[in-house]
Write a structure and sequence with these properties.
Layout (H helix, E strand, L loop, with lengths): L2 E6 L15 H11 L3 E6 L6 H12 L3 E5 L5 H13 L5 E5 L1 H16 L4 H12 L2 E4 L5 H5 L7 E3 L11 H4 L17 E3 L2 E6 L2 E2 L14 H4 L2 E2 L2 H13 L5 E4 L10 H15 L4 E6 L6 H9 L2 E9 L3 H7 L5 H14 L2 E8 L6 H14 L3 E6 L7 H4 L2 E2 L6 E5 L5 E5 L21 E3 L4 H19 L25 E3 L5
Helix pairs in contact: 2-3, 4-5, 10-11, 11-13, 14-16
C-alpha cells in the first residue's frame, strides 16, 4: 500500500505556534485517505528540534513520498526540513504546495506575460530546485497528479479554466479536513473560557489591497462560498466529535458573502437542534458592516471580530487602495461594540507615504475608538502582492525595489530571501525586523515607531501584551516513538 507523509512546518515567527492549526494540508490528507492511500501527518508546530524529528521520521516511517504545504513566513523552516530529508540519503519524492507556491507562481506568470524575468520567476525557480513537484492552486485534485510516477515538475491549477480549480459547487464533494490526523486538542485558542478551532466557510477575497498576498491568484481572489449544509455538517462534526463549541472562522472576509445573514440564521437553528451554544470569531470588511448584521452575528454566537483597518490616516488608506474611509472604520467599531462584539483592530505600518505624522494618526485613532484588542505589524512585500508585483528595481540601490502609489508616494523594499529570513513577519517587541522604508522613515525608524505605537496604546487602553510560548524540545533518547502531538497515522497504515 502506498504511504504518503504530509508535513506541517513550524511557524517560529508566531508568539505561539500552537494556537490555530492550518486546514489546507488536512484537506489533502482527507482526499488521500478517501482514495485508500495511507497517510501520516507530521506536525512540527512548536517543536524546537524539528530537523531531528524529520530525520527520524524519514528513516523509520517507510514513506516514499513527502508533501509539504507552507506560507511564505514558514519558508525558512521548510528549507531546513528539505535539507534534513535530503541528508538521510533516502530516495524520497518531495511535493510542495500551499500559499507560497501559489504566490510565487502567480508572480512568475505575471512577469512572463509582461515579457520580463524578475524576482517572481527567481522565487519560483528557487522552489522548483528544492522539490520534485510543485503545486500551485488547489491541492485536492492536483495531489493525485503529483503522486504519479512521471508527474510534471510544476502543476499549475491556479486558473479559472483549469480542471484542477475547484468551483464553489464542487468543494462539498470532497471530505472535510482530516482533523483526526493532528492532535487538535493540543492547539489552544481560548477566549472567554471557550476553546476555539478553525473552520473555513468560503475561499477568496475580491479586494486588491496593496499589501495583501495572492492578489494575482484566482485561487485566493475568486470568492467560492461553500454550500451552507456542508458548512453546518463541519460545525456539527467539530462540536459532536471533537468537543469544540468555539468556531474560529478563517474566511478572509465573512461579510463579502451575499447570503451571510441567511447563513447566520442557519447557524442559530443548528444550535437549537443540538441544544448547544456556540461561540465564534471571524474577519469582517469594515465598510460592509451594518447594525442588523452585527446584531445577528451576536445572536449566532459571535463574540469576537477581526477587522483590517490598517491605518488611521486617510492618505495611507488611499495608498493601500482600501475602500473604507476613516469614518467607515470608526462606524464599524461602533456598530460592532453596540452589538456586544469585541473588536480586534488589525493595523499595519510601512506603506507608501508612511511618516511619523501618519503613524501618530493611527495611534490617535486607536485611542479614540478603543478596540478591545489590536495588532500592529510592519508590512512585508510578499510575492503576488501589488507592493511586490508592481514594484520596479531602484535605479541605484542594489536589491531595492520601488512601488509607487497613484499619488506619487513611494515604498522601498529589500529583495527578501524567503528561505533565509524568519523575522520579517511578526514577533515580540524588540524582535521585529523591517525590510521596507519610505521617503520619510528608515527601516529602523519604522520598527522603533511600531514598538512605541503598540506600547503606548496598550498602556493607555489597559491592554496586556500577548504571552509568548516556548517551543517544546522532543527528547527521544530512550528510543520512544514520536508522540501523537507530532505524528498521527491513518488507520489504514500497517
Amino acid at each position: 500500500m502506498q504511504k504518503v507523509g504530509l508535513i506541517i512546518p513550524g511557524s517560529s515567527f508566531l508568539v505561539d505556534e500552537r494556537v490555530t492549526p492550518g486546514l489546507g494540508i488536512l484537506r489533502v490528507a482527507a482526499v488521500l485517505e478517501q482514495a485508500n492511500i495511507s497517510v501520516d501527518v507530521l506536525d512540527l508546530c512548536g517543536v524546537q528540534n524539528y530537523q531531528e524529528v524529520v530525520r527520524e521520521y524519514i528513516v523509520f516511517s517507510g514513506a516514499s513520498t513527502i508533501g509539504i504545504g507552507a506560507t511564505s513566513p514558514q519558508m525558512p523552516a521548510v528549507a531546513k526540513i528539505v535539507q534534513a530529508i535530503r541528508k538521510t540519503g533516502k530516495s524520497i519524492k518531495l511535493i510542495f504546495g500551499g500559499p507560497h507556491a501559489t504566490a510565487v507562481n502567480a508572480a512568475a506568470r505575471m512577469e512572463q506575460k509582461k515579457g520580463t524575468m524578475g524576482r517572481g520567476n527567481a522565487g519560483l525557480q528557487q522552489i522548483l530546485d528544492m522539490f520534485d513537484v510543485v503545486i500551485a492552486g488547489d491541492g485536492e485534485r492536483s495531489i493525485f497528479i503529483a503522486l504519479r510516477e512521471n508527474s510534471p515538475h510544476l502543476i499549475d491549477g491556479d486558473s479559472l479554466d483549469s480542471d484542477l480549480f475547484l468551483q464553489a459547487s464542487e468543494i462539498a464533494q470532497y471530505p472535510l479536513p482530516a482533523r483526526h490526523l493532528i492532535d487538535i486538542h493540543s492547539y489552544k485558542m481560548e477566549l472567554d473560557r471557550t476553546l476555539y478551532t478553525p473552520l473555513i466557510a468560503q475561499l477568496g477575497c475580491p479586494y486588491g489591497c496593496g499589501f495583501c498576498g495572492l492578489r494575482l491568484s484566482p485561487s485566493f481572489r475568486k470568492i467560492r462560498i461553500r454550500p451552507i449544509d456542508n458548512v453546518l455538517e463541519e460545525i456539527r462534526q467539530i462540536y459532536q466529535i471533537y468537543g469544540f463549541s468555539g468556531i474560529n472562522f478563517l474566511d478572509d472576509e465573512l461579510d463579502v458573502n451575499p447570503r451571510f445573514l441567511g447563513d447566520l440564521q442557519e447557524i442559530i437553528k443548528l444550535q437549537d437542534q443540538l441544544g448547544a451554544r456556540f461561540r465564534a470569531r471571524g474577519f469582517l470588511k469594515a465598510e460592509l458592516i451594518t447594525q442588523p448584521m452585527a446584531d445577528l452575528m451576536y445572536q449566532a454566537g459571535f463574540r469576537h471580530v477581526l477587522i483590517g483597518f490598517e491605518s488611521g490616516h486617510p492618505r495611507i488608506l488611499e495608498n493601500i487602495k482600501k475602500r473604507a474611509t476613516i469614518d467607515d472604520n470608526t462606524r464599524a467599531v461602533e456598530l460592532c461594540q453596540k452589538a456586544g462584539l469585541s473588536v480586534k483592530a488589525l493595523m499595519s505600518i510601512g506603506h507608501a507615504g508612511e511618516s511619523a505624522e501618519t503613524i501618530q494618526a493611527t495611534h490617535d485613532w486607536l485611542l479614540k475608538v478603543r478596540p478591545e484588542q489590536f495588532d500592529v505589524t510592519v508590512i512585508t512585500c510578499y510575492p503576488s502582492t501589488p507592493y511586490y508585483d508592481m514594484a520596479v528595481p531602484h535605479p541605484t540601490g542594489k536589491d531595492i525595489f520601488v512601488y509607487t502609489a497613484t499619488n506619487g508616494d513611494k515604498l522601498y523594499s529589500e529583495n527578501v530571501d524567503f528561505l533565509e529570513e524568519p523575522q520579517y513577519y511578526k514577533g515580540e517587541a524588540g524582535q521585529y525586523k523591517s525590510f521596507v522604508f519610505t521617503d520619510y522613515l528608515s527601516r529602523e525608524e519604522l520598527v522603533t515607531m511600531r514598538d512605541w505605537l503598540e506600547k503606548d496604546v496598550r498602556e493607555k487602553l489597559g491592554l496586556s501584551y500577548y504571552t509568548s510560548h516556548a517551543e517544546a524540545l522532543f527528547d527521544h533518547s530512550m528510543g520512544q516513538r514520536l508522540p501523537d502531538k507530532i505524528l498521527k497515522r491513518t488507520n489504514k497504515n500497517p
